[in-house]
Design a protein that fits this description.
This protein is mostly helical. It is 58% helix and 1% strand. It has 16 helices and two strands.
């Protein structure tokens, strides 16, 4: 009896408000034509104080959050099943996005302090990298490259070994991310990951620049009609694919807590693994331009590493995001435009707006800057004598 009285009192106190009206569509499922029964006032009261754990939210094209409910699972089964080849709803409607809106940059949400920290961290990292690795008088970069060079007289073999060492540490640490973050935290593990990968990447790039013309010349196409323009355009396009990490620079620098994102918009609609595609384009362009055995060796090593990275990335995303990743995987493709052409990916009418954003503009500016800075990068690499 006491329990019934308490229920009656709670219902009376928390269900009645002289200015409150019920919205008949408030509890309507976005994936069903049926309307849910309104919660009882007691349920509303309890949920106010005791919030049950919810699955991670997903983002719609307009950044609304959708919970992975039973209705959503049923929606996935029907909409992305064999009925229409995994595409939209069969009548040309757009697909609800379960991943994140990539390259979103809202100026009003940015904190000046975060970007001040980012600048300070970036400067500190570059200073430490120079002292501990790049500077031949204090760093370990030259001894490392010299030690690897002693393993073979072939520049091609040394190039492949350097790429292999980088790949082992880079992909190995990425594979251990879940365990590592549980042991030392997300930010500390990001520092460990970057602190290991960055010096090895610098060594590989510097060695390639310094020895790119040391191999056996296989062809010479630099003076062929249109080759320069083709190579320049290919490199420009490759950078638009290569650097989706600019979507979350503050996380890259561990200013914000790093997350494993499930991107789904923008360039992800074209290919699920833009870094792989960008690396393939970059390698093919440089190999065509240089035309020797060192360039071929570098391309084989880099493409091989990124092919493994695509497989490993899918595996890790499946572990982290589960059913949501399976949905994204069904309606995206590794081969560019394949999912769009076979109807699994339904592009929004205003798809172009997903590229008119600051991160893509930043990539464009940096790409043009890198092209004009080529002579400076070559001169700096030559002075290292790696």
């Amino acid at each position: 009896m006491a329990s019934s009285s308490s229920t009656l009192v709670l219902s009376t106190l928390f269900s009645y408000h002289p200015h409150q009206t019920l919205n008949p569509n408030k509890n309507k499922s976005p994936f069903s034509s049926h309307t849910k029964r309104p919660f009882s006032s007691l349920t509303l009261k309890v949920s106010t104080f005791v919030k049950p754990k919810q699955p991670p939210p997903f983002h719609s094209p307009h950044n609304h959050q959708i919970r992975l409910s039973r209705q959503f699972r049923a929606y996935i089964t029907v909409r992305d099943g064999a009925d229409d080849g995994g595409g939209g709803d069969g009548d040309g409607n757009e697909q609800p996005v379960v991943g994140e809106d990539s390259a979103e940059f809202i100026l009003s949400k940015q904190k000046i302090s975060s970007w001040v920290y980012f600048t300070a961290i970036l400067g500190s990292v570059l200073f430490i990298l120079n002292v501990a690795w790049i500077d031949n008088s204090t760093g370990f970069g030259k001894p490392f490259v010299d030690a690897v060079s002693e393993l073979s007289d072939s520049k091609e073999v040394v190039m492949l070994i350097l790429i292999l060492i980088f790949a082992i540490f880079h992909s190995g640490l990425a594979s251990l991310r879940d365990t590592g973050e549980q042991l030392i935290g997300e930010r500390a593990y990001r520092v460990l990951f970057a602190g290991t990968s960055l010096p090895l990447a610098v060594s590989t790039v510097v060695y390639f620049i310094n020895h790119r013309y040391d191999g056996v010349q296989l062809w010479e196409l630099k003076n062929a009609f249109g080759i320069h323009e083709f190579v320049w355009l290919s490199n420009f396009i490759s950078f638009l694919f290569l650097y989706p990490s600019t979507f979350n620079l503050l996380e890259v620098a561990a200013v914000d807590k790093p997350k494993m994102h499930l991107w789904e918009t923008g360039i992800m609609r074209i290919t699920r693994h833009p870094q792989l595609v960008g690396q393939v384009i970059w390698c093919l362009a440089h190999t065509i331009w240089i035309g020797n055995s060192v360039a071929v060796a570098a391309s084989v090593g880099l493409i091989g590493h990124h092919l493994f990275g695509a497989w490993n990335g899918d595996r890790r995303l499946a572990v982290r995001h589960g059913e949501a990743f399976e949905v994204v995987k069904k309606r995206t493709s590794i081969i560019p435009f394949a999912a769009i052409l076979d109807g699994r990916q339904k592009l929004p009418k205003d798809y172009y707006k997903e590229f008119i954003r600051l991160p893509y503009l930043s990539i464009t500016v940096l790409t043009l800057g890198a092209y004009f800075a080529h002579p400076l990068m070559q001169a700096a690499s030559f002075r290292l004598h790696w």
